[in-house]
Amino acid sequence: MAETTHEHGAPEDHAEKPLFSALLTPHRSLSRNGFTIVMILAGGVLIVQGFFFFVTGAWPIATFCGLDLLALYAAFKLNYRAARAHEEVMVSRSELLIRKVNPRGKATDHRYNPFWARFLVDRHKEIGITSMKVTGQGRTTPVGAFLNPDDRESFADAFSNALATARR
User: Using CA atoms, how far apart are residues 115 and 93, in angstroms rounded to an integer?
Assistant: First the structure.
């Protein structure tokens, strides 16, 4: 989800005042409570199936029900871990900063001069924005790849406006 904020502080150097700041985070539709409910329901179904197989003498198959539950749990945990990744985008008159933070918390900064940076948006007629990237100084940095189409549109509009403002 794209959350856009503008800072209205009065720093000493007007050129360093952020004109635009956004925190981009991946959307996850299942909350922690939803995860608990899904795991309880799946566990209940798999226990009933496992019990049926055990009673009918197919006890090796019952063990696979436990492995299914373990695989489901691992898949959700990996998904939630990947959701910890995020991007911070900041535009001032003198710098464009894109900070990408991976799920482990390691940050990588990509800095551009806003006068030379170009914001490129790829669009599909039916889908909308399919990718966004910043290019300049011989480098390219993708931005907001994990955003949904509506968030991509709103971010692209706000970010384009911020770059135009920084260049004035």
Answer: 8
Contact assessment for residue 28 and residue 79, using Cβ atoms and an 8 Å cutoff: yes
Q: What is the DSSP string of 65-117?
A: HHHHHHHHHHHHHHHHHHTT-EEEEEE-SS-EEEEEE-TTS-EEEEEE-TTT-
Query: Does pLDDT of 27 surpass 90?
Result: no
Which long-range contacts (C-beta less than 8 Å, at least 24 apart) are formed by 79-82? 79/28, 80/28, 80/35, 82/26
In sequence order, what are the residues at sequence separation of 6 or more whose Cβ sits closer than 8 angstroms to the Cβ of residue 9?
Answer: 17
Task: Indicate whether 41 pLDDT > 90.
Answer: yes
